[in-house]
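Write out the 3D structure for:
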Amino acid sequence: MEKLLNAEIVGQIKEVFAQIKEPVQILFFGAADNCDYCGDTRQLLEEVTAIDSRIGLSVYDLSADAQVAKQFNVDKAPGIVIAAKDGDQVLDFGIQYSGIPSGHEFSTLISDILLVSRRDSGLSPQVRDYLKKLDKPLHMQVFVTPTCPYCPNAVLLAHQMAMENPGMIRAEGVEATEFPELSNRFGVSGVPQTTINAGAGTVIGAVPESQLFSEIRRVLAN
């Protein structure tokens, strides 16, 4: 089988992965039917996780492993969860990606691995404090396309926020063209678009932390 990542790219990723602090576990959820990109997504994750021994990969089927999918709130294939590994425990930080992380979104995958390995969101104290105290569920779906250079920043910001309270917050990057029904449901015409709590709030563009935070507070205040 032909490799998706050439030797030069593998070398570059290896250099970036030198920054990994703590072990990371990636969970892949595929499906036997109606999943055009499941094969390539799995192969991509296998090649990435083979680069550094501190990154593990678990492979599941959305139907056959329905209980695991439910545990990690995965309802699409290909579905990816970037979790932390602590001994035998897998710690869910609410960080997900639905679709193949190709094009510009490949950098999102690499950034997510580093983010989870640091166990630190890097957000401002005010935002951290608010998110930690959340008692209402927050679900962010960031719609992206592989050709969008601004999308990785939007996905990463949502993922940083999920880290602060994974019991209440789930942040999901969604490849818009792979899930057209969902994109149409939320009126996605340009990317990145961050949809909050199934359309209760929307942010268009790769906005600063303060702007997304403001929209989240508005939604959750209602």
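The helical segments are 7-17, 38-49, 66-71, 105-118, 125-132, 151-163, 180-185, 209-221.
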